Automatic annotation (TrEMBL), chains A, B:
Chain sites annotated for binding Zn(2+): 259, 262, 361, 420
Role this protein plays: Catalyzes the sequential NAD-dependent oxidations of L-histidinol to L-histidinaldehyde and then to L-histidine.
Protein family per UniProt: Belongs to the histidinol dehydrogenase family.
Zinc is among the record's keywords: yes
Active site: 327-328
Upper lineage: Bacteria, Pseudomonadati, Pseudomonadota, Alphaproteobacteria, Hyphomicrobiales
Source species of the chain: Devosia algicola
GO molecular function, one term: histidinol dehydrogenase activity
Gene coding for it: hisD
Cofactor stoichiometry and binding remark: Binds 1 zinc ion per subunit.
Protein name: Histidinol dehydrogenase
Keywords linked to the UniProt accession: Amino-acid biosynthesis, Histidine biosynthesis, Metal-binding, NAD, Oxidoreductase, Zinc
């Protein structure tokens, strides 16, 4: 059964801390295996990648067939239901339009001493996108990872997607084609991450790797961090719905179910100021889960990780939300915009009764790759900024150098870096 | 002896690739030791931190004396040479002024379907700053790490600095005081990173940890990544000077020496279109290194890792610079602004003959924490953006939800996430 807590209970704090600390992932210790796989790919290249791919995915590949040909991509995309293709194109266009607004602009200026200072942005040259295979292989995630890279101006996007038993959803390749990804490899796991990070004969190395994956993928990303950039280490998905007396229990329940059906530790939490809503949502959960074709995943997710917290005020709801720092926060309240400003830690905020989280997963325009497992305390969702980097610019002329010199030389000498000081004073005719 | 290459030699590409791939750090395998230390700190808290600190740093601390008292900070700051204090204050004010311009602004808008979309920025609540002890304990680095956090609005900045044999440079504490850091612990190594990431009785956990450190610190940051955010894994410092016939060989040599004197694998590379400059710089290196009080570090750094590359054109120089992706790139050329646009991968660019890199280390105003070891291909220098995070905002009303619904439900069903589709369709009276 889901946990039910009331913030006015004397043991609430203790129980809430337990909820916060509860593990939803089996933290498989795969670091050593991954270290071996990475070393193997570094030394034997494509041959190792192909062998490991056949071992783990039964993919039936050889070093020559790791990459999808243009014809294979074309054929798969053409096999995709036109209605799905159109929907993906619609999603693409909206996601692209929103991300275009995230492009940073250079800013170079002169300060009052005449020093030129500034920031110049440039795109990362080559990016690897990891797309999980099997159940969690989502075409929408292909769009969400590839579009910000495209908008940023990344020249090369290499996508890795495992093909268990040699199979892949055509919609994955259709989404890649729509997003403009033409370099696609049928590889997965730590071997895919190693190939992207270090390069092989047929896979040129990239500069950054993004995208979610299983424990092996996560461990491999952690190990190659520094050789390449990585995005966050993604955990199970989660939603927190803050609801008041104006919320519709059926709609709230539908949103909690949408999260729980991800399985794999996905968590749905309702925080409400209105106790009757808590009961009504509980009843709706049972009724609606029974209507789902794949009801067992949602039911187990809700029973294992679900929670309903009753609170005296929306102020308390916000405090708890900030401690939970959820990936998704829905504000199913009368005045969501007034509450929004108080939500400090959240991957994304969904405003009001007519914004189910699932809209953000697909066609809202914002990115659905968001920080999980309380990492919204320090991390952001994926965006254009993840595919660009800043170069700072500094310029002095003789006058401004002279104005800065004394302080710089003083600090250099205090740090016993005399060569630093000398590189400044040698330019001054003193 | 430093490497000398000429881009027109037939074996240049091969030699250049060797230079690119050369290791400048001993990659000490400390992962297992660090795992043990982290587990110890998690289970025994302050007691473990104190024991490990005494074991590694001979710091003579107890669990009660891990934190510097306000009086200790005040006393140390007062002992700092007033000239150094003033220089640090001057540096602080310039760094602060520049970083103020990096603050991102919220952007929330309605698109043509009436969907509310946007980005809201908020500061990370608590940040840990690691400051190395001993030789590489630089007050300027305290400023460079703390000021962007302050400007971002971080409420709590906890600084960890090891005190080998119980000693610390007063200027470190003075810099912390100037930057507004009041929470300072005399701890270092993996135990400091673990204490900051997981918290102990006397050290509250933080949300993100930044700052350079030795192999133990780097491994610990890698392991706690996800529990907290981290900045990059810093490697040895490096400079690449692009110089033409207008460059002053004595000034160029001084800049190469300033980099080499960091030791620990620091690298200085000169790329020049003007062969006589290469010879003149070589001669200046010998002459100027001999003038340094601590000449052996600079000499060894230059002889072990230095390089001079002669190229036919500035275009070739830029190509090589982009492949090297150096932390610092100096443009000691006649028209640096014209060349700047072609430098794509660099932590920072220094314009013209009167901008020695050392100015950027201290008082230029830009940050001196920059990506090393070719990571400028994908990473940026430290800035205000490292201490804030984005929350995306999405809002629909009944009309805009209806406009988005069909495509979203289509994708949800294609992904076999029927609950996602239902959470949308339940809100439409269809």
């Amino acid at each position: 059964m889901p946990i039910r807590l009331n913030a006015t209970q004397p043991d609430f704090e203790q129980q809430f801390v337990a909820l916060l600390g509860s593990k939803r992932e089996s933290s498989q210790e795969v670091g050593d295996i991954v270290t071996t796989i990475i070393a193997d790919v570094k030394s034997r290249g494509d041959q190792a990648v192909a062998e490991l791919t056949n071992k783990f995915d039964a993919a039936g590949v050889s070093p020559d067939t790791l990459r999808f040909t243009p014809e294979q991509i074309e054929t798969a995309a053409a096999r995709t239901d036109p209605k799905v293709r159109d929907a993906l194109q619609f999603a693409h266009d909206r996601i692209r339009a929103h991300h275009e607004k995230q492009k940073p602009v250079d800013h170079i200026y002169q300060d009052d001493l005449g020093v030129t200072l500034g920031t110049r942005w440039s795109a990362i040259e080559a990016v690897g996108i990891y797309v999980p295979g099997g159940l969690a292989s989502y075409p929408s995630s292909v769009l969400m990872n590839a579009i910000p890279a495209k908008v940023a101006g990344v020249e090369r996007i290499a996508m890795a997607v495992p093909t268990p038993n040699g199979e892949i959803s055509p919609a994955i390749l259709a989404a890649a084609q729509i997003a403009g990804v033409s370099e696609i490899y049928r590889i997965g796991g730590a071997q895919a991450i190693a190939a992207l990070a270090f390069g092989t004969n047929c896979i040129a190395r990239v500069d950054k790797i993004v995208g979610p994956g299983n424990a092996f993928v996560a461990a491999a990303k952690r190990q190659v961090f520094g050789t390449v950039g990585i995005d966050m280490i993604a955990g199970p998905s989660e939603v927190l719905v803050i609801a008041d007396h104006t919320a519709n229990p059926a709609w709230v329940a539908a949103d909690l179910i949408a999260q729980a059906e991800h399985g794999g530790g996905a968590q749905s939490i309702l925080v409400t100021t209105h106790p009757p809503l808590a009961d009504a949502v509980m009843a709706e959960m049972g009724r609606q889960i029974a209507l789902l074709p794949r009801q067992s995943i949602a039911r187990e997710g809700w029973e294992d990780f679900g929670a309903i917290l009753t609170v005296p005020t929306l102020g308390v709801a916000v405090q708890l939300a900030n401690r939970i720092a959820s990936e998704h926060v829905e504000l199913a309240v009368e005045n969501p915009k007034a509450l929004m400003g108080d939500i400090r830690h959240a991957g994304a905020i969904f405003l009001g009764h007519h914004t189910p989280e699932a809209i953000g997963d697909y066609v809202g325009g914002s990115n659905h790759v968001l920080p999980t497992a309380r990492s919204a305390r320090f991390a952001s969702g994926l965006g254009v900024l993840d595919f660009v980097k800043r170069t700072s610019v500094l310029g002095c002329d003789p006058g401004s150098l002279a104005a800065l010199a004394d302080a710089a030389v003083t600090i250099a000498e205090a740090e016993q870096l005399d060569g630093h000081g000398r590189s400044i004073s040698i330019r001054l005719n003193r």
